[in-house]
Design goal:
5% of the residues lie in helices and 56% in strands. With 740 residues, the protein is mainly beta. The strands form nine sheets. It has a 22-stranded antiparallel β-barrel. Strand 34 and strand 35 form a beta hairpin. The longest helix is centred in the first third of the chain and has 26 residues. The termini are far apart. This is TonB-dependent receptor. Keywords: Receptor. It comes from Massilia orientalis.
């Protein structure tokens, strides 16, 4: 039984009202346009089978086609998904690398090389475990799926919050075809994307995809507050990624898909700005110029990753056999920047200088899954499999003297992680209306961690740590067809995240720290429906979860401590809503919203307070901050999205206008609450005007992203001053697409 507070009940009522308001006007219009085209069926693989999204007893959103193309048109990286679907946030203090994902407020702010996250990112069926792998660019995709809630019985590892799933377009044996996509915009932002599919024979096909992205350095860089000593410009990037796939399909019963890919990124690291935040508020400081920066540190970032995978499917008659083999590696990674965000002269008061570099010398990840699924036409179907995961990573951080550029310290550690799992699920159709599904998974996870280099500091405590944990997780769900257009569903699921280990700190006497395994129990129910003869589609869900022993990261404080802790309990509850409809044959609209409430429940938990901020939480007798009752960091209560597309025939083609808007409410940057470290609400809008002709073969468009140019402080460094960083400025440009 889901527990509901008064606030929860008000949220349900508000969403019900929203649903009614959205449905009634659209319904009236749709009823008057009997000739309107139906919405296309959306299929997802949320349960490792291709299914109608309405039939899946999971809260899931799919982003495909034009909507996805519009989001990437401005040259943004994977963080563009933040707030674009219910309950999803994505952020990074490392710029275009090392993204951190949050679903229903549940994520991890840890920026350590060895961080694990409760949101799993899966690219072409391969788990991208380390956060440095999760920023692979978005191009030539069939779609993105966001699965909310624990997914551990069917997917990878460490998925107690949910899964973000990317699927590339696949080769086909039919014909030679492809596309090219060129855009150019603000700050010299250029994107070149393309793909070609080539049948090599009646059994082999190849698909080659590529992406090139560039942005000029456009932020003026000075070494003094007076800005009389300009040393260059920053905040540009150069990135390219390639993917080559080969399909072997000798008959209808067997297929083998091989994938090789790589990514190379060079450019600026995240620009930290000293005393960006106005004391006692969460405003940008008066007179702060976001088109320039004052820094005396080096600033750059480089990353090279590559990988390969093989997916084999073999229809053996009564069952289908799947083998999924994956290999991912980081050839090199280094990111160096000014952590204090300024110079000894400012801006503002900076007690001492700090320049650091984070690196990965080597990362290798291997995974293997064998899975068998039934293909019965009867009421009973099942899946079962085994999974193996191995990761070896070496990385750490350097400290520098900003005045001389000389390295003053180095901390490097090595982690070896092995995990294996056995899983299975059964689906049974009790009758034509009611089906039930149950899944179970056993996981065994082991980590060995050691410090390999300590220069310029003396580590505290042991030099190595080993952790091992096993756990059984499960889920149970049911779908009931109220009629041919309306489905109700309910789901109970548990999840598990293995222990995490953080390296010793070079700034304070803190040794290697360990956070014990965390578990979650989640309750969810909802409705999915096609309306008005499939000219509208709606989904609504309610959820409630409790996390035990949640792993949290303590960052900063007046001694710049970074360590792991566990909270006894964390509670979360909320609601999610999705609507899509054809108002007329020429007007298509969409709306989505989510309410996410999170609360840390641990009266004994306290943290060192920040050095320069205004704490609003109570303090204990030792002067530390009590965080009991606080929301999780980076967890907005509200996310709202609206989009609309209107088209009209012109000459031999179609002119269209597309607009999309996203809103997220305020967020807390850290575990404690402070006036300065609360991000203001953010509204970002996009507009696109385009013309399509030659039966969809060509398209030209003008676009704008963040068209209101709303600038917000999107994150902060809890260190020795009110250092922060901001969201991206307004961008606009032109785009040309062609198909062949």
């Amino acid at each position: 039984m889901i527990k509901m507070s008064k606030m929860h009940k008000r949220v349900i009522a508000a969403h019900g009202a929203m649903l009614a308001l959205a449905a009634v006007p659209g319904g009236a219009a749709l009823a008057q346009t009997a000739q309107a085209t139906e919405l296309q069926t959306v299929t997802v693989t949320a349960q490792r089978r291709t299914e109608n999204i309405k039939e899946v007893p999971v809260s899931v959103t799919a982003i495909k086609g034009e909507k996805l193309d519009v989001l990437v048109s401005g040259g943004a990286d994977i963080r563009l998904l933040a707030g674009k679907t219910p309950s999803l946030n994505v952020e990074s203090s490392n710029g275009r690398t090392f993204p951190r994902f949050y679903i229903r407020g549940y994520g991890n702010t840890d920026f350590s090389t060895f961080a694990s996250q409760p949101v799993s990112l899966i690219y072409d069926d391969i788990v991208q475990e380390n956060p440095i792998l999760k920023g692979y660019p978005i191009f030539d995709l069939a779609g993105v799926e966001v699965l909310r809630g624990p997914q551990g019985t069917l997917f990878g590892r460490n998925t107690p919050a949910g899964v973000v799933k990317f699927e590339s377009e696949k080769p086909n044996l039919k014909k030679t075809e492809g596309y090219y996509n060129l855009s150019y915009g603000t700050h010299g932002t250029a994107n070149v994307e393309g793909a070609i599919n080539v049948p090599l024979s009646d059994k082999w096909a190849m698909r080659v995809s590529t992406l090139r992205q560039h942005r000029d350095d456009f932020v003026d860089n000075y070494s003094d507050v007076a800005k009389t000593n300009k040393t260059g410009e920053l905040d540009g990037y150069n990135e390219h990624a390639e993917r080559v796939q080969f399909l072997y399909k000798p008959d209808t019963t067997f297929s083998a898909l091989f994938n090789v890919h790589q990514r190379t990124t060079n450019g600026s690291a995240r620009l930290f700005r000293a005393n960006l935040i106005k004391k006692g508020t969460n405003d940008i400081a008066d007179g702060y110029d976001l088109d320039s920066i004052v820094t005396n540190a080096q600033n750059f970032q480089s990353l090279k990753t590559n990988g390969a995978n093989a997916r084999i499917t073999w229809d053996l008659g009564p069952v289908i056999f799947h083998s999924i083999t994956g290999y991912e590696s980081v050839g090199s990674y280094y990111s160096r920047g000014d952590i204090d965000g300024g110079t000894p002269q400012g801006p503002g008061f900076i007690p001492f200088q700090s320049e650091t570099g984070g690196f990965i010398d080597d990362l290798k990840q291997y995974s293997q899954e064998f899975r068998v699924e039934s293909k019965s036409t009867g009421p009973l179907n099942w899946q079962a499999g085994v999974y193996y995961f191995k990761e070896d990573v070496t990385g750490g951080s350097d400290g520098y003297n900003s005045a001389t550029g000389a390295r003053t310290s180095r901390q490097a550690s090595e982690q070896n992680n092995k995990a294996w799992a056995a899983f299975g699920s059964v689906t049974y159709n009790i009758n034509d209306a009611l089906s039930v599904r149950g899944g179970i998974r056993y996981t065994d996870d082991k980590k060995d961690f050691r410090t390999v280099t300590a220069i310029g500091f003396t580590p505290v405590g042991p030099n190595s740590v080993g952790e091992s944990k096993d756990k059984i997780s499960w889920d149970l769900s049911s779908t009931y067809k109220l009629n041919r257009d309306v489905n109700l569903y309910a789901r109970i699921a548990t999840g598990f995240r293995a222990p995490s280990i953080a390296p010793a700190s070079t700034f304070a006497p803190v040794g290697i720290t360990v956070a014990d395994a965390e578990t979650i129990t989640s309750y969810e129910g909802g409705i999915k429906a096609d309306l008005f003869e499939r000219r509208a589609r709606v989904a609504f869900s309610l959820y409630d979860y409790e996390i035990k022993n949640q792993q949290l990261t303590v960052v900063g404080g007046n001694t710049n401590v970074t360590k792991l802790i566990n909270a006894k309990k964390t509670a979360g509850r909320g609601a999610e809503f999705d609507l899509e409809g054809l108002v007329t044959p020429d007007l298509r609209v969409g709306a989505s919203a989510s309410y996410n409430f999170t609360e840390i429940r641990d009266p004994s938990l306290s943290l060192t307070k920040c050095a320069a901020c205004t704490i609003t939480d109570p303090l204990n007798a030792a002067g530390n901050v009590l965080i009991d009752g606080n929301p999780l960091p980076q967890a907005p209560k509200w996310i709202v999205n609206l989009n609309a597309r209107y088209s009209m025939p012109v000459a031999n083609g179609e002119f269209y206008v597309y607009t999309d808007w996203s809103y997220r409410s305020k967020i807390n940057f850290f575990l404690y609450e402070a006036k300065e470290f609360t991000g203001k609400p953010l509204t970002e809008g996009g507009l696109r005007l385009g013309y399509i002709w030659a039966d969809g073969k060509y398209e030209v468009a003008a676009f704008g992203r963040n068209i209101l140019d709303q600038r917000r402080i999107s994150g902060a460094i809890d260190f020795n001053n009110l250092t922060g960083f901001t969201n991206e400025p307004r961008t606009y440009g032109v785009q040309f697409k062609g198909n062949f």
